[in-house]
Design a protein that fits this description.
The structure is a single chain. By secondary structure, the chain is an alpha/beta fold. The protein has three domains: 6-81, Winged helix-like DNA-binding domain superfamily/Winged helix DNA-binding domain (Arc Repressor Mutant, subunit A, Orthogonal Bundle), CATH 1.10.10; 89-159 and 266-288, Periplasmic binding protein-like II (D-Maltodextrin-Binding Protein, domain 2, 3-Layer(aba) Sandwich), CATH 3.40.190; 160-264, 3-Layer(aba) Sandwich (D-Maltodextrin-Binding Protein, domain 2). The protein contains twelve helices and eleven strands. Helix 9 links the parallel strand 7 and strand 8 (214-219). The mean pLDDT is 91.
Amino acid sequence: MIAVSPRQLEVFCAIAAAGSVRAAADQLGLTQPAASMALAELERLLGAPLFDRHQRRLRLNEHGRGVLPRAREIVERLRELGADLQPRGTLTIGASNTIGNYLVGDLLGGFVAGHPDVKLSLRVANSAEIVQGVLDFELDVGCIEAPAAHADLELLPWRRDELKVCVRADHPLAARKRLRADDLRGQRWILRESGSGTRSIFEDASRDVLGPLEVALELGQSEAIKQAVIAGLGIACLPRAAIADALASGQLVALPTPFLALERTLSLVLHRARWRGATLQAFLRRVRA
């Protein structure tokens, strides 16, 4: 039997989440040498390193990714053993750009109000990066815009969403009540970067209908694309939530595009091996309710 201590596992989990020994030590109230010693002893007991070292950053290696879910489960079970099973501690949540920038209140607001003792850490990135963060156990749960097909992931539907093709108010297409697919061919498109859920959904919907697109710009944020369309640099397909204010003010017009299937499902994404303790379960119940 390997004599691994709960403190060693706690240090390992904290370093995996924080990415450095110093940050983990601060989080746990330890000195940096004490945290380094705990990790070194754990790696000695397990017979292999758990992280790849690059400058001052630590990144889980393949062995570490295999150990982490079991270590987290042990640590969380021990915490709950002496507690009242009320949600406590920290949840690290990932949200795709649309959700993190425009729907963060809907995603987190109810849980924050109901569980003031839980600290939430939010990372906003594109859907592909959020999925990778969940796979690498850097995130406890993600919320994404695009489908994610991976055997290690579980997707839970959260809510429906809609994308809209939009143009500046004085664009020649803005006054048209009916459009055909041909009307959108040859337009200068402003798109999100590769890996974006918004771009993935639009490309899937438009590929057979519009054919190859003339991409004028690629930008990493929906807000930047919205401003580029307002400036007359091209047309775009954006989430309704991202352009609601510009539609209301008359700066943008949403085009009728019944020939494009632009509805989508926003989903929570979890690693199947992630232990779902009281805090994570409470978050999932609240968000899905």
